[in-house]
Amino acid sequence: MLDKYIKNEKLKSLAEWVIAAGMAYLAYLLLSHFVYATAEVSGPSMNPTLHHGERVIINKLVYVLGEPEKGDVIAFPYPANPLDKHVKRIIGAPGDLIEVNEHKLYINGELLEDEFSYEPLVTVGDTQYPITVGSDEYFVMGDNRNNSKDSRSSSVGLIQRENIIGKIWIRFFPFGAMGFIK
User: Fold this and answer.
1) Domains plus CATH for the chain?
2) Active site residue: 4, 13, 42, 45, which one?
3) For 1-10, what is the mean pLDDT?
């Protein structure tokens, strides 16, 4: 195709390379806008699942095809700085009743006993309980429950469905800890 416009072989080769690089960049932009994003974990709030400085891939398509579920680790814009991606785990889904009683978390009257948190709940936040999660909202917490700013804090609150960027899918850095996130 370039033969009719460019006669010089070196110039033609350069033009082909520039076109290929441009197409690759366009593909990257489309994929990163609609299919995936990346984030860096900031702070210890997701220990032991994720650690400060780790980098993750966010699957944006998963919630186009289905709804977020309890237990999913998600990313959303941090309310105080929307350019920062906050990473937390969904604990309460639409319609759930969240209560804290004697430093224990109850979902719909049942004690939450999950495999992700490794210490008893001490920090209950400044939120007034009980909380009923709205039809398009999610209650999120860090796995390091006593060192996490999450839905228990009025500065974060319940997360609107439209603000969920996607599901944390893969840890890709550090390379030695690479793998899928559950």
Assistant:
1) 1-34 (no CATH), 35-174 (2.10.109.10)
2) 45
3) 66
Q: Where are the beta strands (DSSP E) in 25-79?
A: 36-40, 55-59, 73-78
* CA-wise closest residue to 150 among 65, 76, 64: 76
pTM of the model: 0.82
Q: Are 53 and 63 in contact (CB under 8 A)?
A: no
pLDDT (mean) for 32-55: 88
Whether residue 151 lies in the annotated active site: no
Of 85, 88, 149, 167, the catalytic one is: 88
**Contact indicator for 41, 52 with CB cutoff of 8 Å:** yes
Q: Is 88 a catalytic residue?
A: yes
What is the per-residue pLDDT for 75? 96
Rounded distance between C-alpha atoms, residue 44 and residue 99, angstroms: 24
Segment 100-150, tens digit of pLDDT: 888 889 999 999 887 787 777 887 888 889 999 999 999 999 999 889 999
pLDDT at 118: 73
Cα 158 to Cα 161: distance, rounded to the nearest angstrom: 9
Alpha helices in 35-80 (DSSP H): 62-65
* Amino acid found at 33: H
Query: Both tokens of residue 129?
Result: 């309980």
Q: Is 129 helix (H, G, I), strand (E, B) or coil?
A: coil
